[in-house]
């Protein structure tokens, strides 16, 4: 009888131990599953910051306006183009959410799977163009340089190919030279009717955007290699760039984004500059996110 009682007691204890162990495992699994769910939820949270570029850029002004127009509780972070792309690369490598100020053409669209957020209030405007702007008097002082600048026109794919090369480590001067060597027919049209100078110095201004680094180095190389000018490149922020052309300290820029990005500068200096017109069509600005983020509109940032 005692043996039976002992056996029954042992079985009861074993059963209790087994149930306890299973319960503990279920709890752990539930905790683990909840952790995964929380992690996924955290990953898809909308950031409370927009990573921007230099404070003088028109896209920064448009973004601040977008924050106000859409009633966003979002902070715009000032920085640089390089800092913005570094933050984007870091976030994508960890598949974390991020919002950046973006523009096309840019090499990041070739490297990453990105998307523009829809802008139903049209704060950023539609497609833009890049214009060539010269100082007043350049046409009379240096008609051959002016002719090249006036005839300079290319496609987004041209610009992007140079941007990708630079991003991959090629020096901007070398990347520009390589592109010019490979696109002689297009370059010949730019210099058609222009005569070589005798080592005359010219100053070209540009902002430190990957797109404008590409275009300005290309034009500088053509001026030097085809027309024998000596070109000085001045990398500045948007405000000083426009001011330099307006007061004659800079001969020209091929980096005027209109009608939205540089609207304020154009309106301020339009009577003190010479607008040579569009050198590239099909540009765009706006807010950009990785495609894995499940949002599609700026309104989703609320």
UniProtKB/TrEMBL annotation:
Cellular component terms per the entry's GO annotation: ATP-binding cassette (ABC) transporter complex
Broad class of where this protein is predominantly found: membrane
PANTHER family found in the cross-reference section: GLYCINE BETAINE/PROLINE BETAINE TRANSPORT SYSTEM PERMEASE PROTEIN PROW (PTHR47737), GLYCINE BETAINE_PROLINE BETAINE TRANSPORT SYSTEM PERMEASE PROTEIN PROW (PTHR47737:SF1)
Protein name: Glycine betaine/proline transport system substrate-binding protein
Compartments, record wording: Cell membrane
UniProt cross-references to InterPro entries, sorted A to Z: ABC_Gly_betaine_transp_sub-bd (IPR007210)
Disordered, as annotated region: 27-46
Keyword NAD: no
Signal peptide (from-to): 1-20
GO biological process: choline transport; glycine betaine transport
Keyword flag Cell membrane: yes
Biased composition, class Low complexity, residue ranges: 27-38
Gene Ontology MF annotations: amine transmembrane transporter activity; carnitine transmembrane transporter activity
Keywords attached to this entry: Cell membrane, Membrane, Signal, Transport
Residue span, ABC-type glycine betaine transport system substrate-binding domain: 43-182, 201-302
